[in-house]
Specification:
The complex is a heterodimer of chains A (287) and B (466). By secondary structure, chain A is α/β, with parallel strands linked by helices. Chain A folds into 2 domains: 37-113 and 245-285, 3-Layer(aba) Sandwich (D-Maltodextrin-Binding Protein, domain 2), CATH 3.40.190; 116-236, D-Maltodextrin-Binding Protein, domain 2 (3-Layer(aba) Sandwich), CATH 3.40.190. In chain A, 31% of the residues lie in helices and 23% in strands. Chain A is built from 10 helices and 11 strands. Chain A has helices at residues 2-16, 47-60, 75-82, 132-140, 166-174, 194-203, 232-236, 256-266, 268-271, 274-277, and strands at residues 36-42, 64-70, 87-90, 107-122, 129-130, 157-161, 188-191, 207-212, 220-222, 224-225, 243-251. The two termini of chain A are 33 Å apart. Chain B has a domain at 19-142: Copper Amine Oxidase, Chain A, domain 1. In chain B, 6% of the residues lie in helices and 51% in strands. In chain B, strands 1, 2, 3, 4, 5, 11, 12, 13 and 14 form a 9-stranded mixed β-sheet that branches. The radius of gyration of chain B is 29 Å and the shape is elongated. Classes of the chains: A alpha/beta (287), B mainly beta (466). Chains A and B meet through helix 1, helix 2, strand 2 and helix 3 of A and helix 1, strand 29, strand 30, strand 33 and strand 40 of B. Chain B: InterPro entries: 6-blade_b-propeller_TolB-like, Cu_amine_oxidase-like_N, Mao_N_sf. Chain B: Pfam families: Cu_amine_oxidN1 (PF07833). Chain B: Keywords: Signal. Chain B: It comes from Paenibacillus endophyticus.
């Protein structure tokens, strides 16, 4: 009879006018009440998600100003520690030690998305199913020609993300089982952002790189790893291992507008709506 | 506060003095007393209904037959004169002069006995309606189960809204009757965009998580896939003739594109290599576009430095959102920048003829006041129509603009702005807990208040969802 009780409350509101009846759990704050400025910096993989959420959040809270930028995951918690950002967007839990990076003391990690990562090759590459061992060989520089992995006779161009990239941390950890990357050579280049990686792979014949699945376009090929295609379904069913959580890092527990923004990004409305549309996977999908 | 008090008093007065007397004097067989049968005004599921009433011992009783007719219940009288009323999964039994009623087999006392007057049966309306699973309050009867919550709503026509709520791993969209709150499920989806209503109000469109575009006929509820293109599609907007849908394409919303419903083909309207467009607006003729561009602050960071040094700097200079206008007839991929100021900008609206845009400009000071700004499509500011109130939201409804603004200590105000003259008038007030105002093209008003959808009807805000 819950609905009946609520009906009674509704009827009461109709009779007594606009007086302060206790509210049910609100799904949005009153348009006028929340204000403040939120500065977000960090992961380029998470930037489309952050800007989409910011656009939606500002319609509900027009007095909250949001600025979002991306220069690689590590710059997120760095900016938070330095006090020039409220939220550090990062592709790993920066409150804990990970290979290559020490934890950021005093920062709190908030899961906001599941990010599948894919090894990607230029459209002219015919070797589109690689084993972990082959990927280790290619990204360490030991395998130099596509014919060594079943492709045509052409030198492999390796495109890597710069140090500090969360995509790089995840790909090294989960696709290469921690094997070190090559760091120099004529057929090696580094790019700063996911957007730069996309451009490089699309326009460089024989190139291989990696990016989050959301950035994969029809001008490149996402390769299978150990016969498993990088798809949302394969992440959820546990077959595809190359994925990580995206986090928002804050200095201590967030308050005010920052707290409400993180709540919005974690809400079922955003997680199951815009977040999915942008090819991310809701955090609740991973059991 | 004066207005609030007056409204509350008038509503109470309406509720308790709704009896129009049509006297019928009758002698009950048992008591041999004269009882006056009146005709009283009730609201049954928000619709006005006349129901016969009597006053017995100071207590108002209502006609059982009139109430069951009004709510659609069934009535049967057994050979032992037991009255049996069935409504949904509720069965109610009682006899004349009884001081209890049996509800689904369980006897329940009532405070005033059932009375027969002039061969009609009268009973306490609250006890009767609540025993049937409904609610009763001051001559208002409700037997419609309302939808739980409302996260988003859009008017379909004067009598229906589409209401959306998160559900499970996705979302459910319902068609909701604006008068009664009665609802029916329209769509269950995962990762789908919001439903956008066609200009003629007969169908809605959405894109799914794979980018495919669908339409739903609101009369038949039949869904139809109109495009298999898998690019990410943000902010679908119908063309005025209903033949195509415009959208922002890609994860960075870089391109304005359109899909033609007849063949599902996707074509580009603007490809200027500028990322993060938002709030796409399209003129009625489908050739003029307005949108924001969100620039990212410049970040300087040296990846060769020790991480512990935090060698990172963020320069947000010149990254405030700006409004752009594009005339597709020019086909030059060169949108014009209409604004250059440093305020934040929200709720962009393009006039139907594409001649001007309106938006809410939010200042950078501590007070963060919102102000309506209107500029023409060459960037010249026209009448700053409404500058004396803090504006929370801007909505376009037909040829009018509507503003949700600050008002009293516990209310917000809704103003209507004439787009041509800039003249404004107060339409009504609403709770200051309002998170969103929803206006139809023909000026029907709804509001999301504390997660419930309320509709402005007969001078009141009436909740049509829980």
């Amino acid at each position: 009879m819950k609905w009946f009780k609520q009906l009674t409350i509704a009827a009461l509101i109709a009779v007594i006018g606009f007086s302060s009846v206790p509210a049910s759990t609100p799904t949005a704050t009153a348009a006028s009440k929340l204000s403040g400025k939120i500065v977000i910096n960090g992961s380029s993989a998470l930037l489309p998600l952050t800007l989409q959420a910011a656009n939606e959040f500002k319609k509900l809270n027009p007095k909250v100003k949001i600025s979002a930028s991306a220069a690689g995951s590590i710059t997120g918690p760095q900016a938070v520690r330095k006090g020039i950002a409220n939220i550090g967007a990062v592709d790993w839990d920066a409150s804990k030690d990970v290979p290559g990076f020490k934890k950021f003391d005093g920062q709190v990690a908030h899961k906001v998305a599941v990010i599948p990562f894919a090894a990607v090759v230029n459209k002219n590459v015919t070797a589109t199913n690689l084993t972990t061992k082959e990927l280790q060989g290619i990204f360490s520089g030991k395998i130099k020609n596509w014919k060594e992995v079943g492709g045509k006779d052409a030198e492999i161009i390796v495109v890597n993300r710069t140090f500090g990239s969360g995509t790089r941390v995840n790909f090294q950890d989960k696709a290469l089982d921690g094997t070190d990357f090559m760091t120099k050579g004529d057929n090696y280049k580094e790019v700063k952002t996911s957007g730069d990686m996309k451009s490089a792979i699309e326009t460089t014949p024989n190139a291989i790189g990696y990016m989050d699945l959301a950035y994969v376009t029809d001008k490149m090929t996402a390769v299978k790893i150990n016969d498993i295609a990088p798809t949302e379904a394969n992440v959820i069913n546990g077959k595809y291992k190359v994925w990580g959580y995206g986090y928002y890092m804050t200095k201590g527990e967030p308050t005010g507008a920052t707290k409400e923004f993180i709540k919005y990004v974690q809400s079922t409305k955003f997680q199951n709506g815009s977040l999915k549309k942008l090819k991310f996977i809701p955090i609740s999908a991973i059991k | 506060m004066q207005m609030k008090k007056a409204m509350a008093i008038s509503m109470i007065a309406a509720a308790i003095s709704a009896s129009a007397v049509t006297p019928v004097f009758a002698q009950t067989a048992a008591a041999k007393q004269s009882v006056q049968i009146n005709t009283s005004s009730f609201l049954v599921n928000a619709n006005p209904v006349s129901i016969r009433t009597v006053v017995d011992g100071g207590v108002t009783l209502a006609s059982v037959r009139d109430m069951i007719n009004a709510i659609g219940a069934t009535l049967h009288i057994n050979s032992d004169r037991t009255v049996v009323v069935k409504f949904g999964d509720h069965t109610l039994k009682f006899k004349h002069a009884s001081k209890s009623i049996t509800v689904n087999g369980t006897a329940t006392p009532i405070s005033h006995p059932v009375k027969e007057v002039a061969y009609s049966t009268f009973i306490e309306p609250a006890a009767f309606i609540e025993a049937l699973g409904g609610s009763y309050e001051n001559n208002a009867i409700s037997t419609v189960e309302l939808l739980d919550g409302a996260e988003h709503a859009v008017w379909v026509n004067a009598s229906q809204l589409i209401v959306s709520n998160s559900a499970g791993e996705g979302r459910e969209d319902y068609l909701v009757n604006a008068a009664t709150g009665k609802y029916e499920l329209l769509l269950t989806s995962e990762g789908a965009s919001e439903l956008v209503l066609s200009p003629d109000g007969t169908s809605v469109a959405y894109s799914d998580a794979n980018g495919a575009v669908f339409t739903i006929d609101l009369a038949t509820k039949q869904s139809k896939q109109v495009s298999t293109d898998n690019s990410i599609k943000n902010e679908l907007q119908w063309s005025n003739d209903g033949a195509s849908l415009f959208f922002l394409q890609g994860d960075k919303s870089s391109v304005i594109a359109k899909v033609t419903l007849a063949d599902g083909k996707v074509s580009k309207v603007l490809e200027d290599k500028v990322d993060y467009k938002a709030n796409l607006e399209v003129s009625a003729d489908g050739t003029q576009f307005a949108f924001y561009v969100f620039k990212q602050p410049k970040v300087t960071a040296d990846s060769n430095q020790d991480v512990e040094l935090d060698d990172v700097a963020i320069d947000a200079t010149g990254t405030e959102p700006q409004i752009y206008f594009y005339n597709a007839k020019a086909a030059d991929n060169k949108p014009a920048q209409l604004t250059k100021d440093t305020t934040d900008k929200v709720f962009l609206q393009l006039s139907a003829d594409g001649s001007k845009v309106s938006y809410v400009s939010v200042s950078n000071d501590e007070a963060s006041l919102g102000q309506l700004v209107t500029i023409d499509n060459t960037g010249k500011a026209s009448t700053p129509a409404f500058a004396d109130k803090d504006v929370y939201q801007l909505v376009q409804g037909g040829s009018k603009l509507y503003l949700l603004t600050a008002d009293g200590s516990s209310t917000n105000a809704i103003y209507e702005i004439d787009s041509e003259t800039g003249a404004s008038k107060l339409v009504q007030t609403v709770s200051d807990s309002t998170s969103e105002l929803i206006v139809s093209g023909s000026a029907n008003f709804a509001a999301l208040i504390d997660g419930q959808l309320a509709v402005w009807t007969n001078g009141n805000w009436k909740n049509i969802t829980n």
